[in-house]
Amino acid sequence: MTSPLLLPPLLLKRALDDLHDLAGLARGLGTLPEKLDGLHDEMRGLRGDLGSLPTQLDDLKQAIAGLRADLGSLPDQMAALNDGIAGVNESLGPLPAKLDGVQELLVPMQELEPVRKATVPLEPAILAVRDSVDELEPMLERLDRSIRDLHPKLDGIHGAVEPIGTLADRLPGSGRRNRS
Predict the structure, then answer these.
(1) With DSSP H G I counted as helix, E B as strand and the rest as coil, what are the percentages for the chain, rounded to 5?
(2) What are the pLDDT digits (tens) for 62-102?
(3) pLDDT value at position 3?
C-alpha cells in the first residue's frame, strides 16, 4: 500500500499527466480543421471518380434485364433438349440386343480361317488361270475385229445369195411353198 504522506504528490503527478494529455489533445484540435478540409477534398475527388457510377449501374441493370430476356426461353430449350435426349435413349434401347445379334453373325466368320488356309495351296493355280485369261483378252479383241470386218462382206454376199435362195424355194421337192 501507499503511504498517506505520499498520496498528495501522487495525485499531483497524476493530475499533471492528465493535464499534459489534455494539452496534447488541444494541440491536435488545432490541426483538426485542416485535416477535415483535406478529408473533404478527398471526398470531393472520390465523388468525381464515382460520378459515372450511377450511369454505369443503370447500364448494368439494363444489360442484366436484357440477359434475363435472352435467357427466358432457356428453360423451354432445355426441356426440348431433354426430350431429344430421352428420344435418343429410347432409340438406343434395343441397341445392346442388336449388338448381340451382330456378335452372333460374326461367329461364322471365325470359321473362315480354316477355309482360307485350305485355299492357300490353290493360289498358284488361280494366278495361272488369271494369266491365261489375260492372254485370251488380246485374242478375243482380234476375233471381234475380224467378225466386224466380216460383217460388211456378208452384207454384199447376202444380195448375191438371195436370188439363189428364192430359186431353190421354187424347185420341186424343196419342202417349201412356192412364192410365185
Answers:
(1) 90, 0, 10
(2) 888 888 888 888 888 888 888 888 887 777 777 777 777 77
(3) 66
CB 170 within 8 A of CB 180: yes
Cell numbers that stand for 163 in this block: 436370188
CA distances from 95 to 37, 76, 84, 107 (A): 82, 29, 17, 19
Can you read off the three cell numbers belonging to residue 55? 450511369
Q: What is the CA radius of gyration of the chain?
A: 60
What does pTM read for this prediction?
0.28
| C-alpha cell recorded at residue 80 | 426440348
CA distance 96 to 92: 8
Distances (CA, A) of 180 to 57, 167, 169, 171, 177: 118, 10, 10, 12, 9
